[in-house]
Amino acid sequence: MATHQPPPSPASKNLQEDNELTQKSGMNPKDTFVSVALSKQVYGPFWDHVLSYWKESLEKPQKGIFFLKYEEMKEQPTIHLKQLAEFLGCSFSPEEEAKGIVNDIINLCSFNNLSNLEVNKKESKNVNNLGVNEKGSTLQFSIENASFFRRGKVGDWKNYLTAQMAEKCDRITEERFHSVGLIF
User: Fold this and answer.
1) In the CATH scheme, what is the code of domain 15-180?
2) What pLDDT, in 10s, does the model give residues 27-57?
3) Tell me, what's a Pfam family for it (predicted)?
């Protein structure tokens, strides 16, 4: 499962016991800031969201959550796809690699390809359950699938943030993430 939602809390399902695997990509906070400012942020505070996945990935390195940075994935997609496949327990065989399966998957999962799929066009909706209220009614919200796609460009924040804004974001990032070893 790849998700924008926070990981399950200890009170909910235990990923490790249920053998469920989650892949989480973290993006440079400045690029995330621009994406959030230009769209909707419905999954809670960015810092807490990323930290929850980062901590889970450290606590369950073999099972649970596979955390990777968007910038690193864009820079070396082959290496990261192979790591993800290994994490999922389905490493590529030498025959699959020789046939170009790795490159085929990279192309199918590219930002350009995914953002142009009909299901990810503006009119498509992604309905999410938030839980149940005190009256027993299911709380839901809906978000356009297209809102998960902006430009897919590493460093695009430079086109939107001033040097002062970028420095402030870097300071906050350092304050929030440095103590747990998460560096962007």
Assistant:
1) 3.40.50.300
2) 666 766 666 544 445 555 677 878 888 888 8
3) Sulfotransfer_1
Residue 127 bridge partners (DSSP): 142
The vertex-92 CA angle with 72 and 69, nearest 5°, equals 15
The tokens for 62 are 């073999």
Domains of the chain, by residue range, sit at 15-180
Cross-strand partners of 67: 24
Q: Cβ(64)–Cβ(15) under 8 Å?
A: yes
- As given in the structure block, the two tokens for residue 157 are 């924040």
Per the CB < 8 A criterion, the answer to whether 182 and 51 are in contact is yes
SS3 readout for the chain? CECCCCCCCCCCCCHHHHCCCEEEEECCHHHHHHHHHHCCCCCCCHHHHHHHHHHHHHHCCCCCEEEEEHHHHHHCHHHHHHHHHHHCCCCCCHHHHHCCHHHHHHHHCCHHHHHCCHHHCCCCEEEEEEEECCCCCEEEEEEEHHHHCCCCCCCHHHHCCCHHHHHHHHHHHHHHHHHHCCCC
Cα 14 off chain centre by:
20
